[in-house]
Amino acid sequence: xxxxxxxxxxxxxxxxxxxxxxxxxxxxxxxxxxxxxxxxxxxxxxxxxxxxxxxxxxxxxxxxxxxxxxxxxxxxxxxxxxxxxxxxxxxxxxxxxxxxxxxxxxxxxxxxxxxxxxxxxxxxxxxxxxxxxxxxxxxxxxxxxxxxxxxxxxxxxxxxxxxxxxxxxxxxxxxxxxxxxxxxxxxxxxxxxxxxxxxxxxxxxxxxxxxxxxxxxxxxxxxxxxxxxxxxxxxxxxxxxxxxxxxxxxxxxxxxxxxxxxxxxxxxxxxxxxxxxxxxxxxxxxxxxxxxxxxxxxxxxxxxxxxxxxxxxxxxxxxxxxxxxxxxxxx
Length: 331
Hints:
By secondary structure, this protein is mainly beta. The chain has four helices and 18 strands. The longest helix is centred in the first third of the chain and has 6 residues, at 45-50.
């Protein structure tokens, strides 16, 4: 199951492996990225979709993932200006954000180099808790382009292939998503925009260690520097750290358990308004995942990212993130 270069199809147990490899092999001198807004998923999406076959030369892969995000937080300054933040007793109002996202991932490997493109579509709903009605929007989110380069790997060892390797990753999140969605001539608030409208740069490391033919450790760490969009909004810089263990269950199934950590800075609403106090902070998730090999290069994945500890700024509540995906090996 974990033999790296010999399988003709995508191995189900190989998805989460690289997603969490570097932590097992590296100390955290480099930090990881995520959006300061908590509406983002921790973990490593490339390794979640591609696994340890990520460097199988000449292989083209397509992955489709559907995810659901949810969080609650106190209303931001944008609502304050509209007079919707406080009720008659001066209590702070709260909003619920729900996002459903579908992402297509395309990958092609050249020996030690793997080029990846991710194109997401977002559908969002925003509602004020205790009030009727909600706002919705949908559109193209920000595409990402990046490369993984294998820095080091151990020699081939029998049926295991390469037992361990370490890779560098770097790339850019483009500002091509919808960031000027309007309703009634007015631009909807930032958390309803499908894209961030900013150019973000990110980089980090990842690694895998195959314990035996049935199990592996994996980890990654990353840092993302966020840009400012045309409306002055800037999501906080992010650091991500992931570590996990995966085990083969029979011929078709693999199970894994990951620990995903995210630390994000506060969002800056604008130069004049300053930072949103109800954004940013750190969260630790536990993420069980089950992968199934359906044969003919098709692998299905189901995972949940469950918040177990946090130190969030201001008034926020994180919710469980659900992910359902398919990966195809194009022969």
